[in-house]
């Protein structure tokens, strides 16, 4: 139950983030709002399983090469 609420809250913040970017591009909102929205979007992308898998693969390849 708590996980569902957590995922719902993330979806709401994602929607607000997208609306903020669109509003900023339309010059309705200040640039600071866009900055916060971009940071939030980067955090969300970084948390995806795909990015985590790519980073893990990159790190393991770097360790094998001795970098």
Topology (SSEs and partners):
Blueprint: H1 2-25, H2 31-46, H3 49-65
Helix pairs in contact: 1-2
Question: What's this entry about, in short?
Answer:
With 67 residues, the chain is mainly alpha-helical.
Polypeptide structure, described:
It is a single chain. With 67 residues, the chain is an all-alpha fold. It has one domain. Helix content is 85%, strand content 0%. The chain contains three helices and no strands. It has helices at residues 2-25, 31-46, 49-65. α1 (2-25) crosses α2 (31-46). The longest helix is centred in the N-terminal third of the chain and has 24 residues, at 2-25. The chain is flat. 4% of the residues are buried. The mean pLDDT is 81.
For the biggest sheet, the summary is: none
DSSP, total strands? 0
What is the arithmetic mean of pLDDT?
81
Helix content: over 70%
Q: Distance between the terminal alpha carbons, to the nearest Å? A: 44 Å
**Radius of gyration from the alpha-carbon trace, in angstroms:** 17 Å
Work out the strand percent. under 5%
**Outline:** flat
Question: What ranges have pLDDT less than 50 throughout 5 or more consecutive residues?
Answer: none
Overall structural class, as computed from helix and strand content, comes to: mainly alpha
Number of domains: 1
Helix segment count? 3
Order of helices and strands: HHH
Task: Provide keyphrases for this structure.
single chain, 67 residues, mainly alpha, 3 helices
């Amino acid at each position: 139950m708590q996980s569902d609420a957590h995922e719902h809250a993330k979806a709401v913040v994602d929607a607000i983030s997208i609306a903020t970017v669109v509003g900023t591009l339309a010059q309705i909102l200040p640039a600071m709002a866009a900055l916060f929205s971009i940071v939030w979007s980067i955090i969300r992308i970084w948390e995806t399983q795909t990015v985590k898998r790519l980073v893990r693969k990159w790190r393991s390849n770097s360790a094998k090469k001795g970098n």
